[in-house]
Predict the 3D structure of the following.
Amino acid sequence: MQKKSVITAVVLILLAAGVLLAKAPAGAVGPAMVVPVKGMATLVDVGAASCIPCKMMAPILEKIEKRYEGKAAVIFIDVRYYPEQARRLGIRGIPTQIFYDAGGKEVHRHIGYMSEAAIVAQFKSMGIE
């Protein structure tokens, strides 16, 4: 139950940061997002709401988030609102999916559309069922 509360808190913080940054003047730097989520395997999908492959992945990410609730965090970072995160993560193309283990170590990176089956297979290879 405590993990659920932590995940909910992280999501609310990220949403609040998104609202603040979306209204901030150009060039403003907002609070740094916590990526990856501490103590939990994390899938970070970096893209843009206007990107066609990113749009195709949106329902998959929602499904994955529900399927792995309490086991892994799923975070979407929109490069239009968080360009500093894209730079920090070394993003070269969108969408990019980055998988982190619970210790925060990057274990896999994929550029382009990634199917649900491929995401599930990656989590499985990380020991997450």
